[in-house]
Amino acid sequence: METKQTDIKLKNPVRCIVKLGGAAITCKNDFEKINEGNLVTVSSQLRETMMSGSSSGSVLEMDWSKRPGISEPSVTVDAFKDQQVLDYNSFVVIHGAGSFGHFQASKSGVHKGGLNQPLVKAGFVATRISVTSLNLEIVRALAREGIPSVAMSPFSCGWSTRERNIASADVATVVDALDSGFVPVLHGDAVLDESLGCTILSGDLIISHLASHLKPQFVVFLTDVFGVYDRPPSEPNAILLREIAVREDGSWFVVKPTFDKKVEISVASHDTTGGMVTKISEAAMIAKLGIDVYIVKAATEHSLMALSGKLRDKIPEDWLGTVIRYVS
To answer: For a FRET experiment, which of 20, 83, 101, 308 has its CA 20 to 30 Å from that of 318?
Structure first.
């Protein structure tokens, strides 16, 4: 793997990298539709956890653009004059595509490569239009909560792959944004691939790469289910796996509850990024670095607790989610 940044030096340590699952923030079976309720709640929870310890209770919106149903933005400039410089505890946000991008990518075969084919090239453009439009809406939702969020698309930042693995990724741009007091918001994207011509770089691969370089205190995957189950959670009697341990070689086993059966994984036919298979494998790679990973349902009291970092001390018995940790 090649990166333009080898020696990462941050002004402040990264507290958390958050992955907003596409299925949690969009209506995955409804083409290009955002789950507004979940996105608003998630944005509010992120603000609450990012602002922990701050005495400021007011929300100063940073989205000054025109919105449906609002004739013109309301900007109280004077309110910012007395606003103290806030500490956002160095968060990075990465989101999946959900009902944005997957349709375009799968129809055109962007994830398979072949950029010299007219359909693939058109699909590359269409996929990026879709995923960047979602990225903008997420950045705006965070900005409305007073979070200084900035969009950072991997393709535009020069990220590329080789055989679908990250070949070049300039982490320095993310570091600069963090050191300047911004919250970088990255996303799964269509990128150039040295071997295939092009492919899809998933948010899960991005989070694993950033975790290895930025060394956050913990990582949170926000999903549309409570965590990892022993079988598809839609099936009767599906059991939530509360704790998964990762060995040095990357293999993993269930610690809690005591369970011997193999976890069955299903991948939606239109999901070009591997679904839960990729999520668990990337979470295991992060855990190998000694970084706890929490997989939890978005917009719940359980996600708020995970984002707060309180689970690092003790996992309450009534907390619903999956913890993935390294064991020596």
So the answer is: 20
Q: How far is CA 73 from CA 39, 66, 292, in A?
A: 20, 6, 41
Tokens (6 digits) for 252:
């993993």
How far is Cα 106 from Cα 95, in angstroms, rounded to an integer? 19
- Maximal CA-CA distance, the chain: 61
Residue with tokens 């999956």, as numbered in its chain: 322
Which tokens is 160 given? 């590329």
Burial code (b: 16+ CB inside 10 Å, e: under 16) for 33-71 equals: ebbeebbebbbbbbbebbbeeeeeeeeebbbeeeeeeee
- Pairwise CA distance, residues 218 & 290, whole Å: 9
Q: How far, CA to CA in Å, does 189 sit from each of 64, 197, 312, 313?
A: 26, 14, 31, 35
Q: How far apart are CA 196 and CA 205, in angstroms?
A: 17
DSSP string, 27-67: -TTSTT-B-HHHHHHHHHHHHHHHTTT-----------S-B
Please identify, in words, the CATH class of the domain defined by 2-64+84-326. alpha beta
Per residue, the 3-state secondary structure of 168-186, as one string, reads ECCCHHHHHHHHCCCEEEE
pTM of the predicted model as reported, rounded to 2 decimal places: 0.91
Helices 203-214 and 172-179 cross at an angle (nearest 10°) of 70
Q: What one-character DSSP code corresponds to residue 244?
A: E
Domain boundaries, the chain: 2-64+84-326
